[in-house]
Amino acid sequence: MAKPTVAIVGRPNVGKSTIFNRIVGERISIVEDIPGVTRDRIYSSAEWLTHDFNIIDTGGIDLGDEPFLEQIRQQAEIAIDEADVIIFLVNGREGVTAADEEVAKILYKTKKPVVLAVNKIDNPDMRADIFDFYALGFGDPFPISGAHGLGLGDLLDEAAKHFPKTDTEDYPEDIIKFSLIGRPNVGKSSLVNALLGEDRVIVSNIAGTTRDAIDSLYEYEGQEYVIIDTAGMRKKGKVYESTEKYSVLRALRAIERSDVVLVVLDGEEGIIEQDKKIAGYAHQAGRGVIIVVNKWDAVEKDEKTMKEFEQKIREHFQFLDYAPIVFLSAKTKKRVHTLLPAIQMASENHAMRVQTNILNDILMDAIAMNPTPTDKGRRLKIYYATQVAVKPPTFVVFVNDPELMHFSYERFLENRIRDSFGFEGTPIRIYSRERK
Ligand code: GDP
Ligand code: GDP
């Protein structure tokens, strides 16, 4: 079963993204500032005490040019559809507004639990300000302060009381889970069909395993794989998918459940801005990534075409420089068979653990080759490094002062680590921490 999902709704400026970031915690601070990658996440996994859950900031869902009220209504509807528990957020400094009432009206229609949180109660003297909000009809309001991190524990305790009784992850560790993401019509469904159709034993076809994807479990050369297929859902005519508003959310949830994500591009049409945004999600989530150029059959080519397309990809997706590129055709099935070995490789690298002593030898060699940067007469000192996590491989470098670690030097260290250990197909993360 999937993890429980909490959605935060409320009109603009009540503090949804502030609360989201607080709840998601440190994970948010590791989001890199890369052009073309949306900085703010709207979907993430989170933990509270013994609970693992997913959280959605509905305020971040882009609903295009809809009028203001229509946007907040739609966001509330998405929360109702997607969440197990809804946090309805209001601003304690402004009292109940007409827009709050609009949100409330939508939420009255659901049977799902709604927890009312009054934000911006920054000190205990302001607690009297929450009483107005009883009028919204969602029971006891929880006073919180996103800015100061107050009251969140009580709020999450309340939310967790309503979590469905489910277990966390759905598949054993050794099964490789992957999903395909990409804008509409790049050929995701065709590729899933091509993969499943290729003389493999489909172990089972678990329709509707989750609300938002169809999982197919199958085996190839002794390795089990699960394809998390969100595109197929849409094809099965769920009304729900008539607009694109859910598709980003759906893709984000599929990414969250995957070890490896295939970013599918249309070789015939080329790369557009939307492709970059979608690819950014996979990178940010820290999953293994493979770039797939589909419809290669439909491209008029000479001996230079592939090289040129590859260059274009590298230019547009600089943040995915670790991702291998596979050119194929779901239609003719040409080179579709190269995909699973690439997925397996990316998955192994995504879970790779390196030896601390070798890591440190490499770092010391790197420092000898390219001295650490200085700032205002102070030089960065690197004491040692250690790998603290896998999926993705995450390293902590202990230094005299993290402020002295410049992006370019971190990049240099990353490249040295990559040159030595491989890590093709997976992002790696490096944090600097002050040695105490
Ligand atoms: P959203 O539009 O609902 O996502 O709201 P934001 O999270 O962007 O917050 C809107 C504004 O309220 C920002 O300027 C925040 O810094 C501020 N804000 C958020 N939480 C608090 C809080 O607990 N106390 C105070 N005083 N300001 C807050
Ligand atoms: P999705 O929206 O990403 O799932 O895309 P579909 O799988 O529905 O494919 C969209 C369109 O592209 C359909 O008309 C497919 O027949 C076509 N298509 C998919 N893969 C290929 C391919 O490899 N070559 C060509 N020429 N067309 C393809």
Automatic annotation (TrEMBL):
<keyword id="KW-0677">Repeat</keyword>
<keyword id="KW-0690">Ribosome biogenesis</keyword>
<dbReference type="InterPro" id="IPR006073">
    <property type="entry name" value="GTP-bd"/>
</dbReference>
<dbReference type="Pfam" id="PF01926">
    <property type="entry name" value="MMR_HSR1"/>
</dbReference>
<protein>
    <recommendedName>
        <fullName>GTPase Der</fullName>
    </recommendedName>
</protein>
<keyword id="KW-0342">GTP-binding</keyword>
<feature type="binding site">
    <location>
        <begin position="229"/>
        <end position="233"/>
    </location>
    <ligand>
        <name>GTP 2</name>
    </ligand>
</feature>
<feature type="binding site">
    <location>
        <begin position="182"/>
        <end position="189"/>
    </location>
    <ligand>
        <name>GTP 2</name>
    </ligand>
</feature>
<comment type="function">
    <text>GTPase that plays an essential role in the late steps of ribosome biogenesis.</text>
</comment>
<dbReference type="GO" id="GO:0043022">
    <property type="term" value="F:ribosome binding"/>
</dbReference>
<feature type="domain" description="EngA-type G">
    <location>
        <begin position="4"/>
        <end position="167"/>
    </location>
</feature>
<feature type="binding site">
    <location>
        <begin position="57"/>
        <end position="61"/>
    </location>
    <ligand>
        <name>GTP 1</name>
    </ligand>
</feature>
<comment type="subunit">
    <text>Associates with the 50S ribosomal subunit.</text>
</comment>
<feature type="binding site">
    <location>
        <begin position="10"/>
        <end position="17"/>
    </location>
    <ligand>
        <name>GTP 1</name>
    </ligand>
</feature>
<dbReference type="InterPro" id="IPR032859">
    <property type="entry name" value="KH_dom-like"/>
</dbReference>
<dbReference type="InterPro" id="IPR027417">
    <property type="entry name" value="P-loop_NTPase"/>
</dbReference>
<dbReference type="Pfam" id="PF14714">
    <property type="entry name" value="KH_dom-like"/>
</dbReference>
<feature type="binding site">
    <location>
        <begin position="119"/>
        <end position="122"/>
    </location>
    <ligand>
        <name>GTP 1</name>
    </ligand>
</feature>
<dbReference type="GO" id="GO:0005525">
    <property type="term" value="F:GTP binding"/>
</dbReference>
<keyword id="KW-0547">Nucleotide-binding</keyword>
<dbReference type="InterPro" id="IPR016484">
    <property type="entry name" value="GTPase_Der"/>
</dbReference>
<dbReference type="InterPro" id="IPR031166">
    <property type="entry name" value="G_ENGA"/>
</dbReference>
<dbReference type="GO" id="GO:0042254">
    <property type="term" value="P:ribosome biogenesis"/>
</dbReference>
<dbReference type="InterPro" id="IPR015946">
    <property type="entry name" value="KH_dom-like_a/b"/>
</dbReference>
<feature type="binding site">
    <location>
        <begin position="294"/>
        <end position="297"/>
    </location>
    <ligand>
        <name>GTP 2</name>
    </ligand>
</feature>
<comment type="similarity">
    <text>Belongs to the TRAFAC class TrmE-Era-EngA-EngB-Septin-like GTPase superfamily. EngA (Der) GTPase family.</text>
</comment>
<dbReference type="InterPro" id="IPR005225">
    <property type="entry name" value="Small_GTP-bd"/>
</dbReference>
<feature type="domain" description="EngA-type G">
    <location>
        <begin position="176"/>
        <end position="351"/>
    </location>
</feature>
